[in-house]
Amino acid sequence: MRPILVTGGTGQVGTALQQLGPRFGVEVVAPGRDGLDLASPPSIEAMLRSRDWGAVINCAAYTAVDKAESEPDQAFAINAVAPEMLALETFARGVRLLHVSTDYVFDGSKNGFYAEDDPVAPLGVYGASKEAGERGVRAGNPDHIILRTAWVVSPWGNNFVKTMLRIGKERPQLRVVDDQLGCPTSAVDIAEALLTIATGKGPAGTYHFVNAGEATWCELARFVFDRAGMDVAVEAITTDQYPTPAKRPANSRLSTDRLQQTFGIRPRPWQDAVGEVVDALIRGTQ
Ligand SMILES: NC(=O)C1=CN([C@@H]2O[C@H](COP(=O)(O)OP(=O)(O)OC[C@H]3O[C@@H](n4cnc5c(N)ncnc54)[C@H](OP(=O)(O)O)[C@@H]3O)[C@@H](O)[C@H]2O)C=CC1
Ligand SMILES: Cc1cn([C@H]2C[C@H](O)[C@@H](COP(=O)(O)OP(=O)(O)O[C@H]3O[C@@H](C)C(=O)[C@@H](O)[C@H]3O)O2)c(=O)[nH]c1=O
């Protein structure tokens, strides 16, 4: 297969894609921001023109959920404007675009797991910018895959597991919200799903990929300390007791039925995936 271009090569999913490329027998080219700046249209155009790409996977994003509330222009530039440009540039070259999106496009009011066609209604700037990015991708390139995922964890970059391990070393007691439900998901598993789709022939459209099961942030924190063998007491609190600039959905669990039926991808339980990440971080092997 022709090489795959990955944006955001220094991020969690971008790093995982580079690691998994050889297993799929595909060359993954994953520049960081210095090699491909999504805020710069000439940079995007030049990179798209530089090779005969087999697919483009857009993993670059403005992911600072709280900071986005005070930097909406920056968030929309990377999460909405750039994906539309990527869509137009890939369409012009007959290249499929795989675009990663988020559970935060939903408002959390559903009683159950969200399906792909459920109405979106983001609560904050980050979610709104990602939702606008989805629309840009759909409008710009009919040959697109929008893969929504959630609560990404890995040994790389910033994520909740790394935050917990860091704070847990400094304090014996933590307070973590227990009324936001979601699906913790490994960046490696997302990368595997993306490469399965990119190297296959399934139909374009919007899909969900998360690890199986569900948890609150509090349950996830307790799992992490248990797995790490750390004696940290985690007090369950409500969202009201942990005020943040951005509102987050109370329920952002995603159904993966469509992805399973279309691509035969079977997500493993989040405990297996997150456990692997905790083990790697404790061993310091990544
Ligand atoms: N993290 C999560 O919990 C979730 C993430 N997602 C989505 O998954 C995708 C991947 O997320 P994840 O790997 O966690 O993200 P990270 O925050 O780990 O990485 C984001 C990447 O985007 C890059 N980036 C930011 N601005 C630019 C720019 N102007 N030009 C080029 N690159 C830029 C960053 O580069 P630099 O290192 O230079 O900042 C980094 O490589 C994103 O679309 C995100 O919205 C969806 C659900 C949950
Ligand atoms: C650090 C900390 C956080 N929290 C709460 C705040 C928040 O409600 C929840 C998660 O906090 P974080 O800020 O780490 O996670 P957050 O940045 O909201 O994570 C999101 O990132 C974006 C990119 C996504 O797309 C989402 O899927 C999701 O993964 O935990 C506590 O209750 N106690 C704590 O000590």
Would you give an account of this structure?
A 6-stranded parallel sheet has the order 2-1-3-4-5-10, with helices on both faces. With 286 residues, it is of the alpha/beta class. It has helices spanning 12-20, 41-50, 72-93, 125-140, 160-170, 187-198, 217-228, 257-263, 270-283, and strands at residues 4-7, 28-29, 55-58, 96-102, 144-149, 152-153, 173-177, 181-182, 185-186, 205-208, 215-216, 233-237. The chain is globular. Helix 3 links the parallel strand 3 (55-58) and strand 4. The structure holds NADPH dihydro-nicotinamide-adenine-dinucleotide phosphate and dtdp-4-keto-L-rhamnose. Residues 63, 65, 102-104, 150-152, 160, 163, 174-177, 180, 217, 242, 244, 248 line the site of dtdp-4-keto-L-rhamnose. Catalyzes the reduction of dTDP-6-deoxy-L-lyxo-4-hexulose to yield dTDP-L-rhamnose. Pfam families: RmlD_sub_bind. Keywords: NADP, Oxidoreductase.
